[in-house]
Every structure is written in structure tokens, then in C-alpha cells.
Amino acid sequence: MSKNLYRSSQNKQLGGVCGGLAEYLEIDPSLVRIAGILLLFVAGTGFLAYLVAWLVIPLDTKN
What we know:
Layout: H1 17-25, H2 29-42, H3 46-56
């Protein structure tokens, strides 16, 4: 069975990008969110990367 990357429809705070990425990588969503916040403050690219991912990654349709 192949894994597909989707935005999470259940484990989301804003757009489901971090929750979906955490499900894909099989790690805790909090770790992905912390990494995103660090990217935002350290490199300044976290916000742009999140917006692009929000637009490109499809929403998970399972309930």
C-alpha cells in the first residue's frame, strides 16, 4: 500500500498541513508544528512554505 500526502481533516489547527505531514511521516503532530514555528522564526521561510503546502496538498476526504 502506498502512502499519499494529504492535509488532515481531523488533526488540524489551521489548515491541516502539519497534521497531514505528521500522519505521512508517522510522528507526533506537535513535533511538526514546532519545526514549522522554528522555520518561521529562524529562516523566515516557514510561513511561505506553509501557504504553498496549503494550496498544493489536497484535503483528506476520509472522516
